[in-house]
Amino acid sequence: MSDLWALFIVALFAILAIFAFVRWLYPNRETHAITDDIFRRELRRHDQPKPIDNFVLSVSGEAAIARTSARDELIILRRVGDRYSLRVLPVSSLHIRPSKSETALVSIDDFTWPAMRFDMNDIQNFARANA
Amino acid sequence: MPENLPDINISSLAGPLYVVLILIEIVAIKLRGGGGSYEAKDASTSIFMGAGSAVIGGSLGFINIAVLIFVYNLAPVKLPFNVWTFVACFILWDFCYYWAHRYYHRCRWAWAAHVVHHSSQHYNLSTALRQTWTGLFTGALVLYLPLALLGFHPALIALCGGLNLIYQFWFHTEYIDKFPKWVEAVMNTPSHHCVHHANNPRYLDANYAGVFIIWDRLFGSFVPELASDPPRYGLVSDLGTFNPLRVFSHEYVGIFKDITKPGLTLVQRVLYVFAPPGWCHDGSRLSSQQIKQNYVAKHGKPKNNAGLPE
Ligand SMILES: [Zn+2]
Ligand SMILES: [Zn+2]
Predict the structure, then answer these.
(1) What percentage of chain B carries pLDDT values higher than 70?
(2) What is the per-residue pLDDT for B163?
(3) B218 sits in which H/E element
(4) With B219 labelled, which of A130, B103, B112, B211 sits at a CA distance of 20 to 30 A?
(5) What is the fold, at CATH topology level, of the domain defined by A36-129?
(6) How far does the centroid of ligand 1 lie from the alpha carbon of residue A33, in Å?
(7) Beta-carbon separation of B239 and A85 below 8 A
(8) pTM for this structure?
(9) What are the boundaries of each domain within chain A?
(10) How many Cα neighbours within 13 Å face the side chain of B123?
(11) A-chain residues within 8 Å CB-CB of B8?
């Protein structure tokens, strides 16, 4: 048992070392805010070539929500590391909670998608446009 | 004799080897300027999952061994430990692994454990270490019990299992392209296993093999890697986090949410636990078969329709 914990502690050091090494050798270049081009590229990559109208960007620029031509449909794009995760969802699955300093926390009933922070006015305008 | 097998914890011996090979791959990809990709948080999550799996698997491994010994004692014939029984056990263990792995993908309860291994959008050696912490609770051990009943000693079964898993480490890489045809025909390789990690519709539920790809060819689950359909790695529903606790538990949370929905029949609740992933009572999500059918409906039947419905 103690051997296993020793192995685990050594593994934690190995993880730290590999983390630093990978970050040094392969710095994440996907650090800018999500753009229209990125959104369209990721739609193609996820085999969802849907036309999108406009999108609202999160405070960090790492998440964006777009309307599609289908009235009840939203697409959420989120940067995870150097890759992008995408969800196509009905409008009703978006939950907006007011938060500190004029922002709102937006969540989607998905345990692996922590809430995203948006500007309160931006997300309210967006939600109104979809109402 | 089997009782004299050395008491070797293979996974802890292999740990340093894994780290060295990962470092070599990281540098090799950089030097070549291609042949794979690494991202710091992704690789760290993968290795953390592997370390957790080693600790939990090592702590609870005695349960597997106890069950194997119990069944072995019921075996009418006890096989000796020699080269022939080792080779036979190794091949049969791989056969059992094929069915266990197929079960991991076709039953949501087992998928909830195995999903961890498929949750990275990268495919590199660190992905191999992204292992479940709850393998014991899938009950897949039952599929290996016939080995003990045939008279293979539990220590030999455990040794073959360890060697099999070590073999499975190296082919989690995009750095190596295809091997000569005869190798690709018999052995599991990077090209075959990258298909298994891809979420392109045609690649879903394909190439379950551990060491020998022949099981997939025999039982109809083989799909070759096609240049016309480059693999896109990860789950059908991408994860939005690297948090290991969420990576490890998300499908269990999903099952819990589903079975506690109001208004379901008992059968529907049971199906939410044991039916293939994607099953639902109201058409709100898709199984892998439906994803494949939708793909063909949307794009038409491609020239090579391997992995797609007839
Ligand atoms: Zn799998
Ligand atoms: Zn794998």
Answers:
(1) 96
(2) 94
(3) helix B214-219
(4) B112
(5) PH-domain like (2.30.29)
(6) 34
(7) yes
(8) 0.93
(9) 1-29, 36-129
(10) 25
(11) none
